[in-house]
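Need residues for this backbone.
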């Protein structure tokens, strides 16, 4: 997979996760109603700082371990399986999922940046994502060095920033900017994309384990 393909797929995978209702979306709706548009980007900033620290930890703490073919293969298989499950659930749930901009949350203590950090760190789904899909993506990006990792993280964070900024703008303006049918259609397409990408992860994982390629993720 090429470097810009890493960026594009990281953006799409990140967008599919951001669009699903969760604690960060709820906090974005609540804080945007109280503070205005900038609550959304500030929450993403806190979320992104935590993810940046996590990626740095993966690189410097586990860089040598991730370079081993057996470890890379195992991560690819586990990440691919989790991504396949995530895509299936997203595709099936897209038929009934509705984006509700009328919800909210209790006021964030310590400001939106700290809230973005604490909400993410306490979310078991977020931890599971990084332990499986995120680790597999970092391993894949490592095949292109620092540039590959930067493009992966940039694409992932850009998806979060784009979606939650859009949500914050819609809440501030008091408008539902997307119809339920279009929203469900986008989620369905994202689900299909995740399942297709999962097959690539699984194939690459088997390639590492079989010794067929030490650069399976980098192609």
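Answer:
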């Amino acid at each position: 997979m090429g470097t810009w393909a890493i960026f594009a797929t990281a953006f799409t995978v990140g967008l599919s996760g951001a669009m699903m209702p969760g604690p960060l979306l709820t906090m974005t709706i609540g804080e945007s109603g109280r503070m205005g548009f900038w609550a959304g980007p500030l929450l993403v900033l806190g979320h992104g700082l935590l993810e940046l620290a996590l990626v740095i930890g993966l690189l410097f703490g586990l860089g040598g371990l991730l370079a081993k073919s057996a470890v890379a293969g195992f991560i690819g298989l586990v990440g691919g399986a989790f991504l396949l499950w995530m895509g299936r659930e997203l595709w099936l749930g897209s038929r009934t999922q509705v984006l509700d901009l009328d919800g909210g949350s209790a006021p964030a203590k310590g400001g939106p940046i700290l809230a973005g950090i604490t909400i993410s760190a306490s979310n078991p789904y977020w931890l599971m994502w990084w332990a499986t899909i995120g680790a597999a993506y970092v391993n894949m990006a490592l095949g292109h060095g620092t540039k590959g990792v930067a493009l992966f993280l940039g694409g992932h964070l850009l998806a979060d920033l784009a979606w939650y900024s859009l949500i914050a703008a819609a809440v501030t303006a008091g408008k539902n900017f997307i119809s339920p049918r279009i929203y469900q259609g986008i989620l369905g397409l994202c689900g299909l994309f995740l399942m297709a990408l999962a097959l690539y992860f699984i194939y690459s994982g088997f390639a590492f384990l079989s010794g067929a390629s030490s650069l399976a993720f980098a192609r």
